[in-house]
Structure formats: structure tokens, C-alpha cells
Amino acid sequence: MSEFVEYVNHGASRVTPRVVELVLRQLPMWKVEFTQINSPKYPHLVDQLEFLADAVEDFAEGVYKDLPYVAFAEAAFALIYAHKKFEVIPDLLPDIGRADDSSVVRVVLIQNERVFEKYAETQGFNWKKVTSKP
Q1: Would 101 disulfide with which of 12, 82, 114, 117, CB 3.0-4.6 Å?
Q2: pLDDT in tens, 9-29
């Protein structure tokens, strides 16, 4: 998992204001796209992506200001990664196609667990739904 941690940290370090602007413009379409994910081996991935998308939007729009920028950048990176069509493991591969997406998202959630749990609580999200294991 340490390789994914390094990958996420490096990817988040490249999230610039311009990247954020592009993500925010495309995020409504991505949210719809994420709801179409059918990956039984990763049943919480859709909820996790929706949660991260909401956190990114709320922070960027000033609705929630207590999210550290590093958590915001990592969440934005995870959303970008999950949207990409060309990844370490192509999404179209049966059973394993979302393994890399799930790993990237889990790293972001684990590294920022306290701040995302606080965000979930203040926004009325069910944190257990986001972090539950199958």
C-alpha cells in the first residue's frame, strides 16, 4: 500500500488552482459517471467517490472551510484518478478493474480520516457508510 500512498501524495502535490478549476467544472458530470460504477468487489466505492466529490465542492465553494488543503488536494486527485480511462488497471477488466481506483480512494480516506470524519459529521453524512468494509 505504501506505493499507493506515495502515488497519491505525489499526485496531490500537482493539484494547482487551474486543476481545481477544471475539476469543479467537470465534477457534476463525474458524479453522474461515478453512480454508474458497477463493481461488486468494491461496493463502497460509489459512496466514497460521492463523499469526496461533495467534500471537494464544499471546500472550494467555501461551504466547509475546516478541511486542510492537503486533504482537499488528495480528494481532488482521487476523483481525477477515478475518472481517468487509462490507469494502472483498466476499469473495463472484470472483477479487478476498479481495484486501483478503490486503493487510491482508500489511501485518501485513511490518511485524512479525522478531518473527513469531522466533515461528515458537520454535513450530516453517514461516515460509517463511507468507511464500512463489505
Answers
A1: 82
A2: 999 999 999 999 999 999 999
User: Which helix (H) or strand (E) segment is 104 a member of?
Assistant: helix 99-111
DSSP 23-80: HHHHHHHHHHHHHT---TTSTTHHHHHHHHHHHHHHHHTTS---S-HHHHHHHHHHHH
* Separation in Å, CA 120 to CA 65, 78, 91: 13, 18, 28
pLDDT digits (tens, 9 = 90+) for 95-116: 666 888 899 999 999 999 999 9
Lookup result for grid cell 465542492? 57
Q: Which set of grid coordinates corresponds to residue 130?
A: 463511507
At 134 the pLDDT is: 43
The CA-based angle 118-119-125, given to 5 degrees, is: 105
Looking from the CA of 12 toward its CB, the CA atoms found within 13 Å total 23
Residue 15's φ and ψ, nearest 5 degrees, are -80, 105
Q: What is the 3-state secondary structure (H, E, C) of 5-16?
A: HHHHHHHHHCCC
The helix/strand/coil state of 2 is helix
